[in-house]
Amino acid sequence: MSLLPHQLELLAPARDAAIGIEAINHGADAVYIGGPGFGARSSADNPVADIARLAAHAHRFNSRIFVTLNTILRDDELEPARQLAWQLYDAGVDALIIQDMGLLELDLPPIQLHASTQTDIRTPDKARFLQDVGLSQIVLARELDLAQIAAIRAATDAQRCTLEFFVHGALCVAYSGQCYISAAHTGRSANRGECSQACRLPYQVVDDQGRFVAHDKHVLSLKDNNQSANIAALVDAGVRSFKIEGRYKDMAYVKNITAHYRQLLDALIEERQGSDQPLTRTSSGRTTFAFTPDPNQNFNREFTDYFVNGRNDTIGAFDSPKSPGLPIGHVLQTGPNWVELTLTDRSTVLHNGDGLCYYDLQKELVGLAINRAELISAKKGRWRVFPKDALALLKDLRAGVEINRNRDVDWLRALDKKSSDRRISVWTKLQLTPVALQLTLTDEDGAHATAQLPWPPGSRRAAVDADATLAQAKQQLGRLGTTIFEASDIDVVWAGPDFLPLNVPSSLLNTLRRDAVDQLQVARAKAWTRLPRALPVEPPVPFPDETLSYLANVFNQAAHQFYTRHGVRVIAPAYEAIQESGEVSLMVTKHCVRFSLSLCPKQAKGVTGVQGTVRAEPLQLINGKEKLTLRFDCKPCEMHVMGKMKTSVAKQSRQALAGAAKESPLTFHKFRPAQSFGH
Q1: 163, 150 in Cβ contact below 8 A?
Q2: Is the pLDDT of residue 214 over 60?
Q3: 463 shares its domain with 517
Q4: Whether pLDDT at 637 is above 60
């Protein structure tokens, strides 16, 4: 069972449990986090005990915790991964996010399984297959457009499988799970959580005749994903889980971006309350913020909505992989150790510790950290800033240069403090009878608890002012400030036909309220249930293809067995098995360098004087001694980055594999054996 079709889930990242707790406090319906191993972010691991603490906090609000178990596994890692899955289940985790299909062959706990972005879900057939083998939630490829998402939704069952989509954060230029540059050049596999991020490096782009097409450009580096304007369209296409990228990101990022999308989703839910297809959130409570969420305040490479609304030529962050921030003004003049600025918005305030930046004459981003900022003229918006570095080190800084701010310390300090409040609504009913006081709390999820106290001897006294007594009782019962609850309605009933309003001591009401709240917390904990594991379709459904290349990332015996059971006849080993010695696709991507540089034949079509002069020839990327070839598959409009593994890396990787192997190596067949399969 997946999310119900009318439920929307905001899925936030967490580098550690503390950040995960704040993601919940800032409105996340679910949080994904790495466990102590086998996650696709190798330096974002967390102990099981910390995850258990995060899960306990999340479940107070009916939020859910997903743990990434999404690397491809060697045979000797299968049993440790299986044991970890059980430990996470016992810790209260709600789902595991996986890439390696070998896990489905193991004795896993009855926990939901979700398909990682690393499974590369681009087609209805692939999505339906993963649904049918028992995955309850699948994160779609970031490269899909709205029509493609809708087609996947039409091919799958909304009652059985939830569609998840990345709505914010850094973009991997490759189709997820389809990049091997790091493995080929450094031995660090992206499929095993160790990507070296070759895509963020500067490259020379050279054509087949050695001519420079681009010089020192970060042509594989993309702007950051931001789907803020497309939330309603994504809902209409069938997306129900809205995922924020960022398991490496800091607390301020997670607080801010979670709050931003919480507000967007809540506004959409409110807008559609009266429609024939109303929406709800998947967890409990209402979140308020002590700051105004703003995605521009966090590190970003500028924003793009990528391919959601079709291909465009503005997705690249080619000049710099750094955060350019937002323009705030220009340089007026420079002194021996200061820079004088005029700010566009006179109300902008600069602070000691702010980060500024500008582009030099080569369009490279240069950072300028403020050691001290002095206001010269508020009326003219003039400031004098004293950089931490010597001005001689700040290349091409001169009068007229536009200045951006990419770090506002005052805004960040606000997020260092308590910046949100998440409360669950409760309906409160106090009944006063001749013998006792009885308080019943019922929360927005239907959980309820009742606490009762007898009247202490001599405490029953008639109220002098019934209205004042009633107001005082309601005020006392509404004091839920240290709890996760807020009183939405308080009703006081004087039971019995002749029972007059009585003065109720505050001490009695406080005790009664505390007892009822404690009982309600217990009732909520008892009511929490983990969503069930989906059952695979029987008999096993066939995989969409009968042949798998190294791009399928099959790295262990169990995965081999899984695909064989699902009708695959030829299975090549994963690239990490070091059996692809020649030049192969080290990256498959929807991003096209030729298109972004206006060299695409489709762009030239119909342009006078250009048509026929632009060919689908390969280009070469050069960074130092590293060389990669770009080939263009124009029919699906995709680019392949070609290369081969370094000899030294292959030797080192083979030694590492040999040292880890506990069983004989797998036998893979690149061609169908004639004697196999009975025909």
Answers
A1: no
A2: yes
A3: yes
A4: yes
Residue bearing tokens 């323009």: 327
Interior CA angle at 517 toward 514 and 520, to 5°?
150
Q: Are the beta carbons of 223 and 315 closer than 8 angstroms?
A: yes
On whether the CB atoms of residues 111 and 85 are closer than 8 A, the answer is yes
Beta carbons of 544 and 125 less than 8 angstroms apart: yes
Please answer whether residues 597 and 205 qualify as being in contact, where contact means their C-beta atoms are separated by less than 8 angstroms.
yes
The strand ranges marked E within 515-673 are 547-548, 570-571, 584-589, 619-623, 626-633, 638-643
Q: How many CB atoms lie within 10 A of CB 158?
A: 16
Return the pLDDT at 494: 77
Gap between the Cα atoms of 185 and 164, Å rounded = 32
Contacts of 128 (CB under 8 A, 6+ apart): 155, 156
Instruction: Confirm if 238 and 163 have CB atoms less than 8 A apart.
Output: yes
Strands, DSSP E only, in 379-532? 382-387, 402-407, 420-432, 436-443, 448-454, 461-462, 485-494, 502-503
**Residue 37 is part of which domain span?**
7-171+223-283+291-297
Give the C-alpha separation, 98 to 130, whole Å: 11
Please give the pLDDT value at position 392: 92
Let me know whether 251 and 356 are in one domain: no
464-496: per-residue pLDDT in tens? Answer: 787 888 888 899 999 999 999 999 999 998 765
Q: What CATH number does residue 441 fall under?
A: 3.30.420
The span from the CA of 361 to the CA of 633, in Å, is 35
Residue with structure tokens 């972005």? 117
The identity of residue 19, as a single letter, is I
Predicted TM-score (pTM) of the model is 0.94
Residue 621 falls within a domain, yes or no? no
DSSP-derived 3-state class of residue 654: helix
Instruction: Please list the alpha-helical segments (H only) found in 68-158.
Output: 75-90, 124-132, 146-155
Residue 312 Cα distances to 143, 309, 395, angstroms: 12, 9, 33
All residues at 6 or more sequence positions from 377 whose CB lies less than 8 Å from its CB, including other chains: none
Element (H, E) at 557: helix 557-565
Q: How many helices (H) and strands (E) does the chain have?
A: 15, 32
Beta carbons of 444 and 280 less than 8 angstroms apart: no
Question: 433 and 406, same structural domain?
Answer: no
What is the distance, to the nearest Å, from the Cα of residue 533 to the centroid of all Cα atoms in its chain? Answer: 23
* Cβ neighbours for 480, distance < 8 A, ≥ 6 positions apart: 423, 426, 486, 487, 513, 517
Q: Are both 13 and 116 inside the same structural domain?
A: yes
SS3 75: helix
pLDDT for 266 beyond 90: yes
pLDDT tens for 410-425 read: 999 999 999 999 999 9
A 10 A CB-CB count for 30 gives 24
Q: Identify whether the C-beta of residue 422 lies closer than 8 Å to the C-beta of residue 484.
A: yes
Do residue 409 and residue 424 come from a single domain?
A: no
**Nearest to 204, CA basis, from 215, 191, 196, 190:** 215
Same domain, 427 and 407: no
Q: What percent of the chain has pLDDT over 70?
A: 94
- What lies within 8 Å, CB to CB, of 673 at 6+ separation is none
How far, in whole angstroms, is CA 395 from its chain's centroid? 36
What secondary structure does DSSP assign to 542-556, as a single string?
Answer: PPS-SEE-GGG---S
